[in-house]
Amino acid sequence: MRIVVEEWERVLAYRDGRFTEVLAPGRHRRARRRQRFVRVAVRPRLLVVPGQEVLTADGLTVRVSLFATCATTDPRRWHEAVQDADAFVYAALQVALREAVAGRTLDELLTDRGSLPSVVREPVTERAGAVGVTVEDVALRDVMVPAELRRAAAEVATARAQGQAALERARSEVAATRALANAARMVADQPALLQLRTLQAVEAGGATVVLTTAPGGGDPGIRTTP
């Protein structure tokens, strides 16, 4: 019989139930009698792990999903090691994902989510290799936080922003008060500064200067009004 093997597959040949060879891409002629042939796809494929509800280290429930790119690198082991090698790798991804999330608090998970795929990939790579599969890439798809936790996080962020605004206002008020105190001290030490400031206001315009006489014939006072 004639067997054509595509570039993206390999064909396993068995004679009387015993493995004999792997047929590479191309055209082959083999006897049909007492032989069986199994086609195995070796091109990369995507395994998607949908949202898994997992408890974090601080006892909060989140839904996490990811996907992994895998390829069969050992066709014979992929076919013979387990009944369904892809299902085996899928289960390994689920377990590794749950263990990685359970070992972190929610804050750690959200702030350092970029490192989670590598943590998941490490144990899965070894288990997948046992069934002839190579895990080429693992990527985190979603981290879904319950609505009540999102509202609580928004309230915390709002309170933090309001606290920063109040702190800045307090700093501005302290700076203004300190400036006034310094000005009063300078005027008390050098009274002529007040007269110079009055003359500057008159020169700039937009102010009315009122001369007043102190009771008992004292020195006249100068007052400016806008």
Descriptive overview:
It is built from six helices and ten strands, in the order E-E-E-E-E-E-E-H-H-H-H-E-H-H-E-E. Helix 2 (85-102) runs antiparallel to helix 4 (116-129). It has 226 residues and is an alpha+beta fold. It is 44% helix and 33% strand. The protein has helices at 75-80, 85-102, 106-111, 116-129, 147-189, 192-204; strands at residues 2-5, 9-15, 18-23, 26-29, 35-41, 45-55, 61-72, 133-144, 208-213, 220-225. Strand 6 and strand 7 (61-72) form a beta hairpin. It has a three-stranded antiparallel beta sheet with strand order 3-2-5. A three-stranded antiparallel beta sheet has the order 6-7-8, covered by helices on one side. The chain has a two-stranded antiparallel sheet with strand order 1-4. Among the domains are: 2-41, no CATH class; 45-145, Tetrahydropterin Synthase, Chain A, CATH 3.30.479.30. The longest helix is centred in the last third of the chain and has 43 residues, at 147-189.
Short characterization:
By secondary structure, this protein is an alpha+beta fold.
The CATH superfamily of the domain at 45-145 bears the name Band 7 domain
CATH architecture of the domain at 45-145: 2-Layer Sandwich
Question: Total strand count, please?
Answer: 10
Q: What is the mean predicted local confidence, pLDDT?
A: 82
Q: Structural class, judged by helices and strands?
A: alpha+beta
Main pleated sheet: 3 strands, antiparallel
Helix share bin = 40-55%
Alpha carbon gyration radius: 40 Å
CATH secondary-structure class of the domain at 45-145: Alpha Beta
Please count the helical segments.
6
**Broad shape:** rod-shaped
Oligomeric status: single chain
Strand content: 25-35%
User: CATH topology of the domain at 45-145, which one?
Assistant: Tetrahydropterin Synthase, Chain A
- Separation of termini? 109 Å
Unreliable segments of 5+ consecutive residues: none
Spatial order of the strands forming the largest sheet? 3-2-5
The helix/strand series, from N terminus to C terminus, equals EEEEEEEHHHHEHHEE
